Amino acid sequence: MTEHAIQTYADHHSEPEPPLLRQLWRETHLQLLMPRMATGHWQGRLLSLLSHLIKPSSILEIGTFTGYATLCLAEGLAKNGHIHTIEVNPERESRIRRYVAAAGLSSNVTLHVGDAGDVLAELVGEVWDLVFIDADKINNGRYFELVVNQVRPGGLLIVDNVLWGGKALPDYPLKANDHDTRAVRAFNDHVQHDPRVVPLLLPVRDGLLLLRRTAA
Ligand SMILES: C[S@@+](CC[C@H](N)C(=O)[O-])C[C@H]1O[C@@H](n2cnc3c(N)ncnc32)[C@H](O)[C@@H]1O
User: Fold this and answer.
1) Which of 88, 15, 103, 19 lies closest to 52 in space, CA to CA?
2) Atom nearest to 61 CA in ligand 1
3) Pfam families given for it (predicted)?
4) How far is the CA of 136 from the centre of ligand 1 (A)?
């Protein structure tokens, strides 16, 4: 059985994709370059489930793209809960705001248009229940360091694309200038030994790393 067939079976035996997300997925594929960056049906349902379990009051997302994961994560928000999401590309702003409004979430979502490093410096007073790191992979370690001490004990950090198309595996032959893959590998290795988090790497889609925040 192929990986594709298994994923299709899993899609068909999971909660159906909500209509607004299906519309966003279709629009993303029709109108944007690299539509595969969007989270998509199955992983979106996983993010929704995790959010429902945590019932977060405060969520941080680094890397919004079209807002697909933003809407999925928002499904589990506590009453009056809030998401801060950061996107560096201003061309994405109007679409994100349109879909956040269509989901009835305008008062629950703050979209920051800017570089994540700059925006995170403005959010140092926040305490996060749930963090989703999904921007420029070369900065996974930097973003982790910037936010990990603001995640409450028992909170969850999720990092996407940690398998990086299989290139994260040590046997994969790397080109000399492949700095992204080196950064992904270094980050994945680092968190194995960081006492502030307990890691679980889910080998689904492009790899989703769950990091439970300890009290350390
Ligand atoms: C993989 S996509 C995010 C997908 C989205 N989280 C989802 O699951 O649907 C990565 C996004 O991060 C944005 N990005 C890249 N570098 C960034 C930076 N330094 N600061 C903020 N956003 C950045 C990109 O423009 C892109 O839209």
Assistant:
1) 15
2) 6
3) Methyltransf_3
4) 6
What pLDDT, in 10s, does the model give residues 85-104? 999 999 999 999 999 999 99
**CB neighbours (10 Å) of residue 87?**
25
Q: What is the DSSP string of 73-98?
A: HHTTPPTT-EEEEEES-GGGHHHHHH
* ipTM of model: 0.99
51 Cβ inside 6 Å of ligand 1: no
Is the shortest distance between the CB of 83 and ligand 1 below 6 Å?
no
Tokens of 75: 């499904």
| 114 ligand 1 Cβ < 6 A | no
CB 166 within 8 A of CB 188: no
Residues 177-215: tens digit of each pLDDT: 999 999 999 999 999 999 999 999 999 999 999 999 999
